[in-house]
Amino acid sequence: LIRGISTINGNSPLYVVDGLPVNDINYLNPKDIATLTVLKDAASAAIYGSRAANGVVLITTKAGTVSAPVITVDATYGVSNPTRVPNMASASEYARIMNLAATNSGNQPVYANPDQYTQTTNWWDQIRQRGITQNYSLGLSGGSDKVLYSTGLSYFKERGLVRGTDFDRLVLRVKSQYQAAKHLKVGQDLNISMTNQNYLNSGSLFRDAFNDDPITSPRVPGTSGNPYDYYGASPTDIGNPLAVVERSDDKRNQYFLVGSVYANYEFIPGLIAETRFGTNTNFYERNNFSPFYTIDANERNQVNTVERQHDLNIYWNSTNTLTYSKSLGDHNFTALAAATFEKFSNRPLGGTG
Q: What are phi and psi of 164, to 5 degrees?
């Protein structure tokens, strides 16, 4: 939070990437960021209007420099495991504890022979996996007195600590600037990105894994005799965490086209006029499949259902600025005049069957 809690526009600040306001920066590769500046005062953020109520974060991506072509390659691979997991009771220990609790409450023991429960279900082991993170980047930059350029291609993939969760992102970035005349510069910034996520609507998944009894088997045979037909149902009416993980099929994809073209002209030293035209186009796609499953008579799905959702969001922006900067000894002065035109378009479509 930059300015505390807000209730009108949410808590998120406005992000301005290479001069273009955006609400979502998931399309960015963090390695492409050159500078990040936070604007907290109202005067600095005034040009962005009410969207800057929670502050503004200015992000500048890497640009080319006057040099021979430079190729950069970066690759990282990492694994992750929980630093600490609960030490759960075995099936027989659980039965003894439940019997003790029942006796202390003046009731009959729940389990006649706790020692007969030799098979223990560790629900944490049923839902977790080793996390894996991969990040690969390829970049090319350079330039001359006339042209500066910087391009990058990156791929990021992460497998979560919970089964059925993963995320990957592919990003192509192209940034260039051309000295068209002595005082005139033109350029463009382009980002094309795609993200894919397997989403798990966990809800009470971790609570259930912590509270579920270790006696219940994760799976039980069905009428066909197949031991994997049905999921085990706990007598405590706590959901089966394995069923939540395995029956989840919620794929969410996003496609981003974020870019702008600009021209700036320096009339006299310190006085620069710039005009910029940009777009932030985002296409969101969700495909959610709920399969047939049976846990018990009260928790089952008798039909397969499919939910599809499409959202096309288009944002157009045209910004014209006139900036004058002057230094007098130890003092720096900057004056800014600006005019901005914005247009938003949203086209949602969804269905279930």
A: 85, 10
Domains of the chain (ranges plus CATH)? Answer: 1-61 (no CATH), 64-87+129-352 (2.40.170.20)
Cβ(199)–Cβ(75) below 8 Å: no
* Coil vs helix vs strand at 115: helix
Gyration radius from the chain CA atoms: 28
Q: Which of 30, 28, 20 is nearest to 256 (CA)?
A: 28
Q: Are 295 and 240 in contact (CB under 8 A)?
A: yes
Q: How many CA atoms lie within 13 A of 227 on its CB side?
A: 2
pTM strictly above 0.85: no
- Cα separation of 300 and 278, whole Å? 49
Residue in this structure with the two tokens 């007195």, named with its chain if needed: 145
Cβ–Cβ under 8 Å, residues 353 and 315: no
Helices H / strands E in the chain, number of each: 5, 17
Residues 128-140 as b or e (16 or more Cβ within 10 Å = b):
beebeeebebebe
What pLDDT, in 10s, does the model give residues 285-300?
999 987 776 665 556 6
Query: For every residue of 276-332, which 3-state class applies, written as one string?
Result: EEEEEEEEEEEEEEECCEEEECCEEECCCEEEEEEEEEEEEEEEEEEEEEEEECCEE
Contacts 24+ apart (CB under 8 A), 93-96: 94/213, 94/214, 94/215, 95/215
Give the phi and the psi of residue 223 in degrees, each rounded to 5: -65, -25
One-letter identity of residue 75: A
Query: Helices in the chain by DSSP H: which ranges?
Result: 42-45, 91-104, 123-127, 205-211, 241-246
User: What's the pLDDT tens digit per position in 78-107?
Assistant: 999 988 888 899 999 999 999 999 999 999
Separation CA 13–CA 207 (nearest Å)? 32
The helix (run of H) or strand (run of E) holding residue 38 is strand 33-39
